[in-house]
Amino acid sequence: MITRVSTLNRRRFLRAALIAGGLAPAVTGRIALGAQQTLPPNAIETEDGAYFPSGDGISGFYVRDQAGGPRFWSLYDAAGGHSWYGPPISRVWEDSAHWYQLFACALFVQVKNGGGPRLAPMVEMIVSGPRVSSSFSNATKLEFDGWPRHGSGPRIHPPIQAFIDGRPRLQTGAARSEPRRAVGHVRNLFANVGLEQVGGQVRLGVLGQRYRAYFAGKPSRLPAAATAPERFAVGAQPASASAGNPIGALGSASGDLAGLTQGLDRGFGCTLASEEGAAAGVSHMNSLGLSWSREQFLWNTLRSYSPQALPTIATDRNFRVTKEIIGLLQFTPAYAGGGPSDPAKYNPPQGLHLPASHPRNHFGQFVRGIVESRTPLPGGHSASGLNPISRWIPWNEPDICRPGMPGYAWGGQPHARWVNRTGGSGPAGPGELDEAGRRERLYRLVQVAYDAMVASNPNARLIFPSLSLVDTSCDNSDRRMAFWDGWSGFLAGQRNRRALVDNGFFFHDVSLTLHKEPERVAEIVGRYREALDNLSATVGETDPLAGKRKIILMELGLQDDPGLGAYFDDEDVAHFTIQAVANAFVAGADEVAFHKLVDYPLSSLAGKGARTAVRYMSHVTRQHPDRRKWPDISGERAANAYFGPVRIDLPGPGFVTSVIYNRQREPLDMTLTFSVTDSAPDPVIHLGDHAGRERKLEPGAYRLTLDPPRSTFNAYGKNWAWVGGGTHVVRYSDSVSLTTDPAIPETVDY
């Protein structure tokens, strides 16, 4: 229930300096040809193309189809975009006859009097540009820069020539250099692009960045103004979950929520959207504002390895979508030492001790084949014709350690024999696998998966097998991170330190499956965020991906616990979802997936709660330094020992989202006061609840009654409330400040 108390009538101005504040970090320039989709995760789709933010978070460059101007987005998008050419590194500029735009790997050109966009001959422009030295003519410029000039014959590095032959659309132009060899690289220069072989793979080199280095700020075809970043403009974007169309109303709501970035937030996904079929699944994802779905690849259903049979094992085979798909690889087939059913399908596959490229390393062979078949190609397709995939997870929940436990998936028959014989302690005998061996096999599986994956798609990302907090019978360590700590110890023990660093520690991101209380979500995510932040010190080498590794809640959901008498319904799930997403983001998560999509129908309170979570928390800035939780409760004890209100603040560009809920066992009256902190006009304030009802407010004071937790239960002599009650979420312009009465303390003893 909400009652109006008083009103402040001030208005604010949308400050241009914050238009794109808090956007994700810049994208690196070296991209494997055809290795990703058109856009990297931090790009923002617009009506006529896309915007690519740069490292400062408030500026970047557009790629567009412009009315009466160049249609560079059409060329960029048709060829795979970011995966072919890298991000834009200039604005569009022009001379009397052409438009140009520079990318990390190439230069686009379009003639003004007709014709479509194409690649421009960068090398000729470099040679004909300003002199590099008074001692060297432009004719020797390439040689001066270390490129051996091309001779009269076709002397091109054979793998690079084979790469060109297989891609007639690449528009390389004629060869302009002999092969140039450096440590780990072989490069050839062509009229339009540079190509390089790295680790057995051929890719576009960053010749565009070289071009900019020659010409930036000098009289040439690249004016200095062309490199001046552009600010992101609100409005040139499709609608998102944060724009209009609330599900219900506490009063009257209209217009978009506060915030300066209203496009799709790619950090929200789900699992198994394919279960609903393509049309229904996509419609459901769009209604919730979800960008991706995790789908399964059931290796154990193969009778033998066959590239032709690979499409049959995927849950997304009839789910042809433009949404991103994340691939989960799991379960060992009979031909690799497993079987189609429990517990044989949980067996570690044979051949893991061999190199990933060895034909008897069955998992390596499988990963190479499945990743190659799904590697994104120009035009948004893959070699198999099914959904392209660039993010992969090798196995799921390997830290669940007892056969018969829900989610047990790693160890299989050898592990079950050891558990049955020893009760879970003592040395393993012949044909058995103890806990230490089970972990070591998983770590090796991850390493094999990484080697095989990057051999097929060097720009794919490996997400570490999803980990779940389990009971003390599996992990009695203080942090409950024994499986992860074993992995970091495995990395620290690698003897080939150069390979360790060059391969990015053999993984990219971390995934968690957390069917836990919201306060436990904060606890666990926070611990993994700290572990990633300290990975360099733990491993003993500088982490080459420090600051770029994501934490992804790959399964977020609320489950009954019959053993404790804990049972929940859709309304509990609605409260839980908003609280858990807020706790995940405040603790350092980057992405969240609802498990499973079919469990969140829009007709149910569970679906309305999920949509509210996405709508109000889209575009909160991940790892924002001002994110806060009052009080700083976390962990299991909070479910039975803290009785009071909770507030979580999550800032974003131009707005703040606050989530408020009640953990005391009786209703709580609370007054929210919104005050304008500057003289700018037009504050925007929207208040919503767990059922998707919302109301647009003016500055002033409002009295809420926060209901108590709906489902409590008694266990171990305590009264537990895993999920708080009275959940409300408010999103307001960053010129507005929010205070509560009663005030919520920063810390409490409980």
Structure description:
The structure is a single chain. The chain has 750 residues and is of the alpha+beta class. The chain has a domain at 23-227. 22% of the residues lie in helices and 21% in strands. The protein has 17 helices and 31 strands. The strands form seven sheets. An eight-stranded parallel β-barrel has the order 13-14-15-16-17-18-19-20. The protein has a six-stranded antiparallel beta sheet with strand order 21-22-23-30-25-26, covered by helices on one side. A four-stranded antiparallel beta sheet has the order 1-27-24-31, with no helix packed on it. Helix 13 runs parallel beside helix 15 and helix 15 (570-587) packs parallel to helix 16 (605-617).
Key terms:
single chain, 750 residues, six-stranded antiparallel beta sheet, 17 helices
